[in-house]
Design goal:
The chain is an alpha/beta fold. Strands 1-7-6-5-4-2-3 form a 7-stranded mixed beta sheet, sandwiched between helices. It has a 5-stranded mixed beta sheet with strand order 8-9-12-11-10. The structure holds pyridoxal-5'-phosphate.
């Protein structure tokens, strides 16, 4: 049981830790067993049957084998489910939610695609832009997926009787577009909607409370928050979770317990990290918008960037990812990255230090030419450095741009 909390910040500190006092420990034990003693053949057989049906093991029974179940990973999953289904209003019902963790964000997304294909619905309606790996996976058809890339307005008309999933990101990677989740859910009708919530995190946005069926994360990013743990997690309805767990068990893309521990620990500071990073991002974005080397800043919090009024309604703040289009295009982006002295030139995001990368050349390299980000676009993940230091570094670098 999780302690009763009325704020997400409190929940982030306590979620998934309900059994610790009973165990007589203060932090999550890391269970490294790959196999578990069986009380009897019959008990083991019953556990296998439960896992094959996608069920969690009964409390107090054997976990059997790590690829099927691990208690350290399960605590992290429970914490993510609690955060993603949190509703601030004490009278409102939280949507039923369960977490299913994976070895990476791509393993999590792959498992959802496989589970929908296994249900006889391999067609995916996807709204671009998407993370380059997701876009390329869908376009390749590798997992038996058929994809239609459409604008939000065309989601409804793209759905056929083979459609098993509608997929979108908000804010999107790398252009930070906001999409109306409830609006997409309405257009999708009976088809489940998956939101990649990596950029917003449950600290700012909880897609299940807006009607989505899946909220998926690269936990490698903000959830862990320190650039030292790779993982993915899907938070979904209990019904879809029962479909996902057997896919995970047979394909083997499981999260390891050390990682689950680090990600669970990271959750405790997620709301304060993101609040600080977001405040700095707003300062940096506003400063960049006034710079002569910058043609356009993409940040949901800037005037004109949220035409549908989703900030405050769908997402509690604009987040800490910023993208900028340079007047001087690729050459200018190359010079800027080379001249930075504090900000690290590296892919990935969501950690405590500020990173910059060129999506068209790197994270979105595998996206088809017609959907590539611009050659002058740089993406910044704002960390916990002071805004003054970041502005100084960017000012210096952009001077030579
Ligand atoms: C990084 C990322 C992914 C992929 O996650 P991995 O943990 O690297 O596998 C998926 N979606 C988004 C939005 C990402 O930024």
């Amino acid at each position: 049981m999780t302690r009763r909390t009325s704020s997400l910040a409190s929940l982030a500190v306590h979620a998934g830790r309900g059994d610790l006092v009973g165990l007589g420990v203060h932090t999550m034990p890391i269970d490294l067993s790959t196999t578990y003693p069986l009380p009897s053949i019959e008990a083991g057989r019953d556990a296998y049957d439960r896992f094959a049906a996608g069920e969690r093991p009964d409390p107090g029974t054997t976990s059997v084998y790590r690829r099927a179940w691990n208690p350290t990973v399960a605590r992290f999953e429970d914490a993510m489910a609690a955060l993603e289904s949190f509703v601030p209003d004490a009278d409102a019902d939280a949507p039923p939610a369960e977490g299913v963790a994976f070895a990476s964000g791509m393993a999590a997304i792959s498992a959802v695609l496989l589970s929908r294909a296994a249900a006889g619905r391999p067609h995916v309606v996807a709204v671009r832009p998407l993370y380059g790996g997701t876009d390329a996976l869908l376009a390749s058809g590798l997992l038996g997926t058929e994809v239609s890339f459409v604008e939000v307005e065309d989601v409804g008309s793209a759905i056929t009787d083979r459609t098993g999933l509608v997929l979108l990101e908000t804010p999107s990677n790398p252009t930070l577009d906001l999409r109306d989740v409830a609006g997409v859910v309405a257009r999708a009708g009976d088809v489940p909607v998956m939101v990649d919530n990596t950029f917003a995190t449950p600290a700012l946005q909880r897609p299940l409370t807006l009607g989505a069926s899946f909220s998926v994360h690269s936990a490698t990013k903000y959830i862990g928050g320190h650039g030292d743990a790779m993982g993915g997690v899907v938070v979904t309805t209990p019904e879809h979770a029962r479909e996902l767990r057997p896919v995970r068990t047979v394909t083997g893309g499981v999260m390891d317990p050390w990682t689950a521990y680090l990600l669970h620990r990271g959750l405790a500071t997620l709301p304060v990290r993101l609040a600080a990073q977001q405040a700095t991002a707003a300062t940096v974005a506003t400063w960049l918008a006034g710079h002569s080397a910058v043609a356009r800043v993409r940040y949901p919090g800037l005037p004109g960037s949220d035409p549908e009024g989703l900030l405050g309604r769908q997402m509690s703040g604009p987040g800490a990812m910023v993208a900028l289009e340079l007047v001087g295009g690729f050459a200018s982006a190359e010079r800027t990255c080379a001249a930075l002295r504090l900000i690290t030139h590296a892919v990935s995001l969501g950690g405590v230090d500020t990173l910059v990368e060129h999506p068209a050349a790197l994270t979105h390299r595998a996206v088809s030419a017609d959907a590539q980000p611009g050659e002058g676009l740089l993406r910044l993940s704002i960390g916990l450095e002071s805004a003054d230091d970041l502005v100084d570094d960017l000012d210096h670098a952009l001077r030579g741009a």
